[in-house]
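Final report, Chapter 2: Outcomes

The project's central promise was a pipeline that accepts a single protein chain and returns its three-dimensional structure in a standardized token representation, suitable for archiving and comparison. That pipeline is now operational. To close this chapter, we reproduce one record exactly as it appears in the project archive, with the input sequence first and the structure output second.
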Amino acid sequence: MKKVSIVTVNFNQAGVTLELLQSIQQTNTYTDIEIIVVDNGSRENPGQAIARQYPHVKFIRSEHNLGFAGGNNLGINAATGDYFFLVNNDTEFTSGLIQKLVDVLDMHPEVGAVSPRINYFNDKTLIQYAGFTRVNFYTCRNYAVGKFKRDEGQFDEVCGPTAYAHGAAMMVKRDATAKAGLMFENYFLYFEEIDWCERILRAGFQIWMRGDAVIYHKESVSVGKKSVIKEYFMNRNRILFTRRNAPLPAKLVFYIYFMLMVVPRNIISYIKAGDKQFISVLFKAIGWNLTHRRNSADLGITLKTA
């Protein structure tokens, strides 16, 4: 039996993280697991509350917010499992989830990572993810298969390759991380798992989705559905991802497309929605890519005011 290290990152959402731990306790039957909670510099340290209710959980406290990638990397580096199951703290497990994903990795040596189907927590009949299409490097866009469709069992028997795993729930082989490396931490938030999947694919592994393994996702609990930090990193990292991964001709087309199509469209959208403060954020995201190297650790934004 392969050991599974469940890694989740908490940021100012101790109650949400405790709900996740409760769902794991109530649904899991897989015996060889360890659970690692990484606290990403929350205002209040939740270590005592977690230790009191779940003493078996390994708790790691970072004094600084390392972002999604940095927090997960910290957990992976402390993990002892053969497989790393990275899950957002705003998810809820279902029965048999871990075993079903382990079976995929055990039975298919060519698979480096696998995600379950993800349904929305607030409407558990609504699908968020049943796979991804590959990113079109000319536009840096891709789509989640099945998103916003009603779950009528249409993906229950789907188990096979997809373009990318989903960052909210992805089980990765230690061997895959050894060959592809960990997530690039200067993404901080958004696109880091897609970039990671690109490197896992280039390392010779496949990525699968198993449709009868299900997890529920509350989505955007830590960041919020609309925020300065979300808008900044979504735009900044869309460009950064293209810089890192696209071939030169596609990069040139993307830059033209982004400036002539995406920027005007976003500005109009901000004005219509009454979010004019996001206009400067958009140009700040563009400016970072003009003035920083791809590996720069300077995030270009002050997180405490974001």
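Archive annotation: The chain is about 40% helix and 20% strand.
This record, like all others produced under the grant, will remain available to the consortium after the project formally closes.
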